[in-house]
């Protein structure tokens, strides 16, 4: 029973440390929200119905889905693995193993913080988008929430894999970028999925970012996510989670 209060105290301490990093707050919360508002307000075409989107505006579903994807991916593939590898590199996890506060408590605290930031960033993105751009609320909230939880679980499992196999903070930053940017591209960040060549779009369907981004877009548009994308996310989550559990080292 004492583990829960210890983890709660760790969450409070680690949250303060996270908030002291302006870059972390900016890139995971302010950047996605700022991009949504800046581009949505400054580019008239983003507020016009698009035949390729079934008559919806890009700011109704596609663009906010990409901003949610961007936020979660930066947290899961950059910040979380870098933090854990840095702690391991400095011997903090090894020293914690000799105290009543187990290293697993720190891992749990980090996951709670990063998931909480992802939820906060998503809430701000949808809330401010609704106020400033008249974005509709998710028509089926629980459907959107289910896709968000499944996709976030998948990406954080991949982030834990990165933390498990990289030896130091310098390497994990490079590895995170090497994974992050191709996945952002395949998720439709620079080339929308609807205009991708058929072969590239099919490849995107089987990536965690492509499946997650399209699932979010479908849910925000009031459509049921495609079973293929849900299966892809579940498969990646299981494989990455098992690998992370098997390979993760505390020292």
UniProtKB/TrEMBL annotation:
<dbReference type="InterPro" id="IPR013525">
    <property type="entry name" value="ABC2_TM"/>
</dbReference>
<keyword id="KW-0813">Transport</keyword>
<dbReference type="GO" id="GO:0140359">
    <property type="term" value="F:ABC-type transporter activity"/>
</dbReference>
<keyword id="KW-0046">Antibiotic resistance</keyword>
<keyword id="KW-1133">Transmembrane helix</keyword>
<keyword id="KW-0472">Membrane</keyword>
<dbReference type="InterPro" id="IPR000412">
    <property type="entry name" value="ABC_2_transport"/>
</dbReference>
<dbReference type="InterPro" id="IPR047817">
    <property type="entry name" value="ABC2_TM_bact-type"/>
</dbReference>
<dbReference type="InterPro" id="IPR052902">
    <property type="entry name" value="ABC-2_transporter"/>
</dbReference>
<feature type="transmembrane region" description="Helical">
    <location>
        <begin position="63"/>
        <end position="85"/>
    </location>
</feature>
<dbReference type="Pfam" id="PF01061">
    <property type="entry name" value="ABC2_membrane"/>
</dbReference>
<feature type="transmembrane region" description="Helical">
    <location>
        <begin position="228"/>
        <end position="248"/>
    </location>
</feature>
<comment type="similarity">
    <text>Belongs to the ABC-2 integral membrane protein family.</text>
</comment>
<keyword id="KW-0812">Transmembrane</keyword>
<protein>
    <recommendedName>
        <fullName>Transport permease protein</fullName>
    </recommendedName>
</protein>
<feature type="transmembrane region" description="Helical">
    <location>
        <begin position="171"/>
        <end position="191"/>
    </location>
</feature>
<feature type="transmembrane region" description="Helical">
    <location>
        <begin position="23"/>
        <end position="43"/>
    </location>
</feature>
<feature type="transmembrane region" description="Helical">
    <location>
        <begin position="140"/>
        <end position="164"/>
    </location>
</feature>
<keyword id="KW-1003">Cell membrane</keyword>
<feature type="domain" description="ABC transmembrane type-2">
    <location>
        <begin position="23"/>
        <end position="251"/>
    </location>
</feature>
<feature type="transmembrane region" description="Helical">
    <location>
        <begin position="106"/>
        <end position="128"/>
    </location>
</feature>
<dbReference type="GO" id="GO:0046677">
    <property type="term" value="P:response to antibiotic"/>
</dbReference>
<dbReference type="GO" id="GO:0043190">
    <property type="term" value="C:ATP-binding cassette (ABC) transporter complex"/>
</dbReference>
């Amino acid at each position: 029973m004492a583990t829960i209060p210890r983890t709660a105290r760790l969450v409070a301490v680690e949250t303060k440390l996270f908030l002291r990093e302006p870059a972390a707050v900016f890139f995971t919360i302010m950047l996605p929200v700022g991009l949504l508002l800046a581009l949505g307000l400054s580019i008239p075409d983003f507020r016009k119905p698009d035949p390729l989107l079934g008559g919806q505006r890009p700011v109704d579903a596609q663009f906010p889905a990409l901003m949610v994807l961007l936020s979660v991916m930066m947290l899961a593939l950059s910040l979380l693995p870098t933090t854990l590898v840095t702690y391991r590199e400095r011997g903090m996890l090894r020293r914690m193993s000799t105290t009543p506060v187990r290293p697993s408590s720190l891992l749990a605290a980090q996951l709670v913080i990063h998931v909480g930031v992802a939820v906060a960033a998503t809430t701000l993105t949808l809330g401010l988008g609704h106020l400033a751009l008249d974005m509709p609320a998710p028509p089926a909230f629980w459907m959107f929430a289910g896709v968000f939880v499944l996709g976030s679980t998948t990406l954080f499992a991949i982030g834990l894999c990165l933390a498990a196999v990289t030896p130091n903070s310098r390497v994990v930053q490079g590895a995170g970028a090497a994974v992050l940017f191709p996945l952002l591209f395949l998720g439709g960040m620079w080339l929308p999925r609807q205009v991708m060549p058929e072969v590239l779009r099919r490849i995107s369907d089987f990536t965690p970012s492509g499946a997650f981004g399209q699932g979010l877009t479908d849910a925000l548009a009031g459509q049921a996510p495609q079973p293929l994308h849900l299966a892809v996310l579940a498969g990646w989550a299981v494989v990455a989670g098992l690998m992370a559990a098997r390979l993760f080292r505390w020292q």
